[in-house]
Amino acid sequence: MPKTAIILGATGLTGGLLLHNLLEDDRYEKIKLFSRKSVEINHPKIEEHLVDLLKLKEEKDKFTADEVFCCIGTTKSKTPDEKKYSSIDRGIPIAAAKLCKENNIDTFSVVSALGANPKSRMFYNRTKGKMEDEVLAQEIKNTYILQPSLITGERKENRSSEKVGKIMLNFLNPFFLGTLRKYKSISAESIAEAMVKITNSSELSLKRIPSDEIKNIANSNYGGN
């Protein structure tokens, strides 16, 4: 039976690639987009809701689907205030997970980050770690938390710190072997591909999926169309 999916963050790099994947996937008949600005794509599958994501709970009646994909994320340069940063990176995914629980949506997939830890001294890792714990606390039947390393791909905005990180990782990637493979950079295409495969397979038992496993899933026929 054709499915309906919700994407949060479709205007971003990973979310945009995910949207294109779902539009080409015959298993999906409708893609609901919740965002503050339009993706500016005219397609019969798309149902766009331009809303304030910080008030997502007010959209409960519209928030109905078979699956929810959350690709929300900001940066320190765009959102220097830590309270506001947390309300985006932590608050929005948690609000989405709570709506999934309330509306009986049993599949929730969210992009987090490698190194997420609620007790970390690093604000970014601590924020992601707290988000993960609170999402899992909702006890949604099929919850998948993807933990990518540095994400590569062509972004619309300029992120100078990421560019430096990518240069360093491109140099170091060949040295990340064995248990260190999860620290290799990963493309947004791989993350988007893995999200679709994960949610369309009953084989995966992992709740938290590290970067190297995301890449393995993306490169396999796991849950493929």
From TrEMBL:
Pfam families: NAD_binding_10. InterPro entries: NAD(P)-bd_dom, NAD(P)-bd_dom_sf. Residues 9-200 form the NAD(P)-binding domain. It comes from the Bacteria. This is Uncharacterized conserved protein YbjT, contains NAD(P)-binding and DUF2867 domains. The lineage of its organism: Bacteria, Pseudomonadati, Bacteroidota, Flavobacteriia, Flavobacteriales.
